[in-house]
Amino acid sequence: MTGDANVSGKISIRNVSKIFNENKDNEVVALKNVHLDIEPGELVSLVGPSGCGKSTLLRLVAGLETATDGELLLDETPIQGPHYDRGLVFQDPSLFPWLTVYGNVASGLKARKLYDKKSNTVEEYIKMIGLEGFEKSYPHQLSGGMAQRVSLARSFANQPKVLLLDEPFGALDAFTRMNMQDELLKIWTEREITALLVTHDIDEAIYLSDRIVIMTPRPGKIEEIIEVKTSRPRARNNEDFLHLRVRILETLNFAKRADDLSYYL
Ligand SMILES: Nc1ncnc2c1ncn2[C@@H]1O[C@H](COP(=O)(O)OP(=O)(O)O)[C@@H](O)[C@H]1O
Ligand SMILES: [Mg+2]
Predict the structure, then answer these.
(1) Ligand 1 within 6 A of 20 CB?
(2) 222-232 burial string, b = 16+ CB within 10 Å, else e?
(3) Is 234 a member of any domain?
(4) Whether residue 241 has its Cβ less than 6 Å from ligand 1
(5) Is there a cis peptide before residue 219, judged by omega within 30 degrees of 0?
(6) In a domain, 199, yes or no
(7) Is the full-model pTM beyond 0.90?
(8) Which ligand is located closest to the Cα atom of residue 220?
(9) Is the N end or the C end of the chain the one with fewer CB atoms within 10 Å?
(10) Could you tell me if residue 262 is inside a domain?
(11) Interval between CA 225 and ligand 2 midpoint (Å)
(12) What one-character DSSP code corresponds to residue 9?
């Protein structure tokens, strides 16, 4: 989806390093010299073992952390903090429990004083994620998959340029997860939005991504970037798919430290 129609949503990550607890005895080099350009409308996944800095990189793009070194830009403008132009979806849908589905989806617009009851914006997003009829339900009345749909709709209602997803379907059962992957692809295609997805699920990355960024830890860095050229919709069991899976696992295994049993995803 790197179409010319899309003029914004370019993410530039330039030689970014992030050190936590710098100069203390518990110093962690979470990211070292990470360099990555993500084109408008592209869907890029970050995969790699726990602790390789995936969430840190996503949080830097979100503006929730600042880089120790290097630069992060959105459409050539430095990222200086969180903003509605970058929507966030986490594993935990973190809906407001006291608001209905409608209220949750409308919450961003209301906070920004952009909410207009007469326009059908909120209804449109509820429809987009297939939750018509559940407008008046509260979060505790929803399944995990439905709650995550609401979280997606809430992000989309703000019409961000970029969607940042940190293991968004990690807590869902396998069937719901596949369903949500299709849902994400559908709305990503409709909205031509740039998406950066953290996942520990290699199949999910292959199924969804234009490119897969493989990261390795200590220090967190990019090991390899794989382009997925198979056209969508992708079959989950064809030869290309299996090929890519083996290649990614080999890259991760090759980079593995022999003394680290917790390495596997
Ligand atoms: N706020 C923090 N303070 C100290 N260390 C952190 C902090 N956040 C992350 N780290 C460390 O940075 C490394 C990368 O973490 P993270 O980005 O969460 O990895 P991943 O998402 O790939 O599992 C880990 O070693 C983690 O313990
Ligand atoms: Mg993480």
Answers:
(1) yes
(2) bbbebebeeee
(3) yes
(4) no
(5) yes
(6) yes
(7) yes
(8) 1
(9) C
(10) no
(11) 19
(12) -
Max distance between CA atoms of the chain, in angstroms, equals: 61
The confidence score (pLDDT) of residue 260 equals: 54
Which of 4-18, 44-58, 112-126 has the largest mean confidence? 44-58
Residue where a domain terminates, one of 103, 134, 159: 159
Alpha-carbon distance of 122 to 119, in angstroms, equals: 8
Same domain, 77 and 185: yes
Q: Please check whether residues 148 and 17 belong to one and the same domain.
A: no
Asked if residue 68 has its Cβ within 6 Å of ligand 1, the reply is no
What does the alpha-carbon distance between residue 136 and residue 23 come to, in Å, rounded to a whole number?
52
Distance of CA 210 from the midpoint of ligand 1 (Å) = 26
Q: How many domains would you assign to the chain?
A: 2
- Do 8 and 73 meet the contact criterion of CB atoms below 8 Å apart? no
CA–centroid distance, 61 to ligand 2, in Å, is: 14
Q: Does ligand 1 come within 6 angstroms of the Cβ of 145?
A: no
Let me know if residue 120 belongs to a domain.
yes
**Residues 177 and 134 occupy one common structural domain:** no
Q: What is the pLDDT of residues 130-168, one digit of tens each?
A: 899 999 999 999 999 999 999 999 998 999 999 999 999
Ligand number nearest CA of 24 is 1
Which of 168, 184, 185 minimizes the C-alpha distance to 231? 185
Q: Is 66 in the pocket of ligand 1 (CB under 6 A)?
A: no
Which of 106, 133, 159 is the endpoint of a domain? 159
Q: How far is the CA of 49 from the centre of ligand 2 (A)?
A: 9
Residue range of the domain that includes 170:
6-85+161-257
Q: Name residue 50's amino acid.
A: S
In this structure, the answer to whether residues 144 and 32 fall within a common structural domain is no
121 and 145, same domain (yes or no): yes
Neighbours of ion ligand 2 (CB under 5 A): 55
Residue 216 Cβ inside 6 Å of ligand 1? The answer reads: no
**Contact criterion met (CB below 8 Å) for 5 and 192:** yes
25 and 143 housed in the same domain: no
